[in-house]
Amino acid sequence: xxxxxxxxxxxxxxxxxxxxxxxxxxxxxxxxxxxxxxxxxxxxxxxxxxxxxxxxxxxxxxxxxxxxxxxxxxxxxxxxxxxxxxxxxxxxxxxxxxxxxxxxxxxxxxxxxxxxxxxxxxxxxxxxxxxxxxxxxxxxxxxxxxxxxxxxxxxxxxxxxxxxxxxxxxxxxxxxxxxxxxxxxxxxxxxxxxxxxxxxxxxxxxxxxxxxxxxxxxxxxxxxxxxxxxxxxxxxxxxxxxxxxxxxxxxxxxxxxxxxxxxxxxxxxxxxxxxxxxxxxxxxxxxxxxxxxxxxxxxxxxxxxxxxxxxxxxxxxxxxxxxxxxxxxxxxxxxxxxxxxxxxxxxxxxxxxxxxxxxxxxxxxxxxxxxxxxxxxxxxxxxxxxxxxxxxxxxxxxxxxxxxxxxxxxxxxxxxxxxxxxxxxxxxx
Length: 429
Ligand SMILES: *Cc1c(COP(=O)(O)O)cnc(C)c1O
Known about the structure:
Radius of gyration: 20 Å
Bound molecules: pyridoxal-5'-phosphate
Helix content: 40-55%
Oligomer: single chain
Strand content: 15-25%
Shape: globular
Largest sheet: 6 strands, mixed
């Protein structure tokens, strides 16, 4: 598999390098040189396969012979050992694709666990390296758990202090061992900027073997393509003809993966890109002007991102496929509307959480009568227990994964959003 740097098309790397590097020169993201397309015959064949076998097929269309199918199958089996996506019927023509049944209760387990398997299997000489990543809430936990206890790997996770839920924090800041966490006195965008600065520092990068693990790593995106096919396999022939998918977006990795699934040949009618008040993309799609505002805190905190990294990949894909960007539907939902929507869902018997509720709101409002819609359930409601209990006035029970961590002490360090402070930490700890 060959990939090029979106900022410098002459930088071309193979899959192994793209996974190891995370980002290319000038902080450019990697994008596949070839966009494979499968026939409808192949599609119906793979739709009948089980999730692991099918995912192996899908990923080998992209990765090709750089990793053998057998090896890929083993990695995928280890990565996706938990319960696969679930489709829950909400209304006649609407379902939720629940992606939060992994060990850290968010869809990010898919990407993070597959990436960990890839990094591990590509590290043939057992070199030591450091994973540095920024999280707006859920990536941190998924990455931390995916690498926890692995030899030769040090994981450092930056997160905005006080801007993630208490339970999200407990899930990854209590692990210790090879997992180090730093709360940053700033926003997620500040954390993301620090990560980019570290990657720009060539000497630092080489001396500690730096690798990134947020949604910019191509292996995470590829892994996420798989559950769109699973979703398709779970619905009826009739529903397949008019499928609309609504995606709650932060860094736009999940949407990019969905679009790659479509590009590969999955007949999805259209997507809805959903944001909270951090609506850089919806405003851009409306008026063509890219104008990120200051990031604001919302109850859907994992989407509190005003400079989404993956947007350049979305644009590149539309360009390469000659798709019209107008085919991408969009919208933003305020906290007030999100709360109302949580009530609305609760009344019809479904307890959701703020991120998925945003996707449900826009799907419900934009879906036409003859269409079938799926919105992505990106996190388990228990991760936002306090918020949801207050909104719904109803007790949320904690799954075991969270119960186990709730009383453990936080092990995080704290620094200001200052690169030299971070650098010192990276070199010393
Ligand atoms: C990360 C996250 C999102 C946003 O996903 P992106 O791929 O960054 O767009 C949405 N919801 C939840 C719960 C998340 O953790």
